[in-house]
Amino acid sequence: MQRRSFLAGTAALAGASLVGSPLAFGQGKLETSKVAIAVGGKNLFYYLPLTIAERRNFFKDEGLEVEISDFAGGSQALKAAVGGSADVVSGAFEHTLLLQAKNQYFREFVLQGRAPQIVLAMSKKTMANYKSIADLKGKKIGVTAPGSSTSIMASFVLAKAGLTAKDVSFIGVGAGAGAIAALQSGQIDALANLDPVMTKLERSGEIRVVSDTRTLNDTHTVFGGNMPAGCLYASQAFISKNPNTTQALANAMVRALKWLQTATGTELINTVPESYLLGDRALYLDSWQHVKEAMSPDGLMPADGPATSLKTLQAFDDTVKGKPIDLSKSWTNDFVKKALTTVRA
To answer: Domain of life here (predicted)?
Structure first.
């Protein structure tokens, strides 16, 4: 687990460096300035807005001291929040629904992605004779971590083909070099993962893409509507206790989303850590072009998004089948709407 933290000093809050920044002094005093955020696969484009807010000091400009803990997958990040070692999760929206099915109320308050960006692909080495999804029966599918958004997407594709998760083996391979090595070595037969991992494997000719959710059109084809993806979510208890801190987090993330709408490739490369590039800057920029449309331009949850997410889970997950899920308790646009009145890139 990688841990990164940065501190906001009082000098920075008062300094000239904040000229033109969106610091919302009028939003009220922060209930707490220290916030622990858990994320699963921070290097992925799925969570790029989080990295931008961190690296460009947008959290710091809001008076926040943010510590980010990076896990192998979203399901592990979720466990950190449920267990109390994290205040907020940068993770997949559908996890709020799975938690509510267990009577644990967590709420999304700023959207990072309006499409999942997840790609399901077959290994050309072990699945050379692939003809249909049914061929995956008895095979091993690599995912970031079991229970993560990648396994959820793969499970949904399997369900549409008449298979269940019990018909395959999900293998946690992470979200970086480990995933690539697992496929190249033949440890897995298929891979559900995200960019830049998938673009790297596409370019090397080692995979055959069979389901893609990197664009809005492809996402609608797979899920039948808008499918919300990465977001910041926290327990309702945390949000109720810390509304001003939650607002500050939303402000920083909306600012990051706006920055990404106009950032050049050079600016992006110069902002993210070198390790994100997988040793190939051209590959990273190529991957960015594949997923740029999937980024939320404003942080707002689309009206039909929560229902699409619930319908997807109900297609294969017994946890939510027949459970009275109240979608209104799983998300809110209130913080983003307020941020949009004051925040600029």
So the answer is: Bacteria
Six-digit token string for 183: 């496929």
pTM of the model: 0.88
Reference 231, options 95, 87, 122, 59; nearest CA is 95
Angle between helices 305-314 and 149-160 (to 10 degrees): 70
Helix and strand counts by DSSP (H, E) for the chain: 15, 11
Q: What percent of the chain has pLDDT above 70?
A: 92
Distance in angstroms (rounded) separating the CA atoms of residues 74 and 192: 14
The span from the CA of 207 to the CA of 119, in Å, is 11
Tell me the C-alpha to C-alpha distance, in Å, between residue 177 and each of 123, 151, 180, 277: 16, 18, 5, 11
Q: Dihedrals φ, ψ of 39, to 5°?
A: -140, 150
165-174 per-position pLDDT tens digit? 999 999 999 9
Residues 289 and 102: their CA atoms lie apart, in Å, by 38
User: Is domain 119-212 in CATH 3.100.10.20, yes or no?
Assistant: no
Look at residue 205 and give its three-state secondary structure: coil
Architecture of the 2-115+227-340 domain: 3-Layer(aba) Sandwich (3.40)
CA 196 to CA 41: how far, in whole Å?
Answer: 11
Domain boundaries, the chain: 2-115+227-340, 119-212
